[in-house]
Write a structure and sequence with these properties.
Structural class: alpha/beta
Strand content: 25-35%
Shape: globular
Number of helices: 8
Mean pLDDT: 92
Number of strands: 16
Radius of gyration: 24 Å
Strand order of the largest sheet: 4-1-5-12-6
Number of domains: 3
Low-confidence stretches: none
Oligomer: single chain
CATH architecture of the largest domain: 3-Layer(aba) Sandwich
Helix content: 25-40%
Length: 294
């Protein structure tokens, strides 16, 4: 049982490419995290959280070893490190988009390589060495996998192929590279140390943080929509709203009208507003959401 002085959760924030999107997510979740340019120990406006910054590549090792209680990293690095940790939740966000990142096998556009098996006896450069070796072993294809210290794209014409991470494919296209296959699709995961999850206080704190981060992600692409609706048009307005949504309907001082409020995706909101206006809605207001807790 933890004493009061032990009630501090050590939480790992990924530095590097995931840093800004992670800090933005925490802000939306209600946390104020300040990162000093000279420190890897950010300050958090929650005295029960001690934040530490590690590279995503090494996060799972420190979580497994108990250096930190929990942290955020890609499932790719959990698999690469073969880390024995608790996966608390999948949080689908990445550096540039909300799409999963992909580790792809790529070759120069002019290469004769058409499929992974064509690389038999060749050399492949990548940062994701263990997963790449496992991939080719499953293909029963013998290749030499060399560790690449970054800027892997430029090595594609020095070796036979590369395995690199991409979200949009723009960097590969810019280097005139062609994707042969996807070896791994990765999303961000909140992982925890097994012993930490046996501590009731730490487990509850980790689950609380998870809930808020999931709510922030849920709210990222949604908006709230309010409008005034004549009672005579209410059925027509409700028929336009997505069937799975249950709007809040409130009476107004003018008994001929009601206020209707609903949460929608931004895409649905753009398409609906002209239809709602045409159906009789007025005073339409939309507003951003920080969190949506199911």
């Amino acid at each position: 049982m933890s004493s009061d002085k032990d009630k501090c959760l050590k939480f790992g924030i990924p530095s590097g490419s995931l840093q800004e999107s992670t800090l933005e997510l925490f802000t939306r979740a209600g946390f104020n995290i300040h990162v000093s340019s000279r420190s890897y120990m950010p300050s958090v406006d929650d005295p029960a959280i001690e934040a530490v910054m590690f590279r995503a590549q090494e996060m799972s090792r420190y979580v497994e070893d108990g250096v930190i209680d929990a942290g955020l990293t890609g499932i790719d690095w959990v698999l690469e490190n073969n880390s024995d940790v608790v996966e608390v939740a999948e949080l689908v966000y990445s550096k540039a988009t909300a799409k999963p990142a992909r580790w792809v096998l790529a070759v120069p556009a002019e290469s004769k390589i058409k499929k992974p098996e064509d690389l038999d006896g060749g050399i492949v450069a990548t940062e994701l060495v263990n997963c790449t070796r496992k991939y080719f072993a499953q293909k029963k294809t013998k290749v030499k996998v060399e560790f690449s210290w970054g800027t892997t794209e430029v090595k594609a014409r020095l070796v036979d192929a590369i395995v690199d991470i991409t979200e949009t494919g723009s960097s590969l296209s810019a280097n005139n590279l062609r994707i042969v296959d996807t070896i791994l699709t990765s999303t961000t995961r909140l992982i925890a140390n097994k012993q930490a999850m046996k501590d009731p206080w730490k487990k509850a704190k980790i689950e609380s943080i998870t809930l808020l981060l999931q709510g922030a992600l849920e709210g990222r692409e949604k908006v709230g929509l309010k409008m005034n609706v004549p009672r005579s048009s209410l059925d027509a307005i409700l028929a336009l709203l997505p069937a799975e949504k249950s709007p809040t309907i409130s009476s107004l001082a003018d008994e001929a009208f009601v206020a209707v409020e609903v949460i929608l995706t931004e895409k649905a909101e753009r398409e609906l507003i002209p239809q709602l206006k045409k159906a009789g809605a007025s005073g339409i207001i939309t507003y951003p959401l920080n969190k949506v807790i199911p």
